[in-house]
Amino acid sequence: MRAALPIEAEQTAILMDTRKIIHVDMDAFYASVEQRDTPQLRGQPVVVAWRGKRSVVCAASYEARKFGVRSAMPAVQAERLCPHAVFIPPDFLRYRAVSRSVREIFLRHTDLVEPLSLDEAYLDVTKNKTGLPSATHVARTIREQIRQELQLTASAGIAANKFLAKIASDWRKPDGLFVIKPDEAIDFLTPLAVNRLPGVGKVTARRLADLGVRTVGEIRSFESGVLQQQFGRYGIRLFELARGIDDNPVEPNRPTQSISAEDTFESDILLEETDAMIRSLAEKVWLASLKEPRTARTVVLKLKTAEFSILTRSHTPAWPPASCEDLVSIALALREKVLLSPGQKFRLVGIGLSNFRDAMTDPMENRLFD
């Protein structure tokens, strides 16, 4: 079942990719903007969130993170972990304006910029506009321009593809820069835990552990067909990522079509028992949506039955969801439209947002910030 490829062949696969990709990730973006604009907050544990039992943390300064505060955490939990934290209501109009300024800096160096959210983007600098001699020089220049012009810090990762560049940008956060050279990629990936790979959540990590796989290097001992049999289409992606292979190009101006999150239950459960998971997934989706420059209009609920049948229900309200609680309420209402036998059990639930509209063209967006 296992077939280990020679390490030379693995390295050759990466060396064939000659692109130079930078992933730039702003450090604690929302919290850093607040600290920059209010000097009294500098050095303080800042939590960007509305107070309340149903609020989630949008961002936490590195001072707050020392106490265990993280994005997507319930605000009440953050307050317990760090009672002296300064809570600041988010100001997304301001964050979007700063994000535009960051993007203007990117565009000085390349037109191939793919924003992932307000605070991170991929840049293809295989050919850069400023004549700098290497991708590393470009990344250093961008970080310095952000520091000098916006008084903020950013971390950057440089590699031959998007997947590796994104891992690299997180390696020396905050305010760091890390390069994964093509001939070093395999050695870098080999000892990493499997959950460092995009798409490997708790359930997939457990299934890999059942196969005796806990590190990225151990994935490479399996043939692609075996991984596909175990994980479906994602098995092919696992096979490639474990070898540092990612052929996805940087796509400038690619609008977000949807944001979603889903999870599989430890054991199949009844429909009425999905409340906690729906709320947890809604919090993740809502937090991700706040980083988008556009507003989602449609809420989607996805369910997979114990027999692997997939059901979806969607709703486009007159006004887009204005809070995580709105999103949860709509998702629970959609659940009521699932008319199956009372004893039907489900193995998976997912929450999504779609039908994104530009804030400049959608007058309803303005209502959210009156």
TrEMBL record:
Active site annotation, chain numbering: 120
Site residues, Substrate discrimination: 30
Cofactor needs: Mg(2+)
EC number: 2.7.7.7
Cited Pfam families: IMS, IMS_C, IMS_HHH_1
Presence of keyword Nucleotidyltransferase: yes
Enzyme class, spelled out: transferase
UniProt-listed SUPFAM superfamilies: DNA/RNA polymerases, Lesion bypass DNA polymerase (Y-family), little finger domain
Family: Belongs to the DNA polymerase type-Y family.
Name the record gives this protein: DNA polymerase IV
Organism: Telmatobacter sp. DSM 110680
Upper taxonomic lineage: Bacteria, Pseudomonadati, Acidobacteriota, Terriglobia, Terriglobales
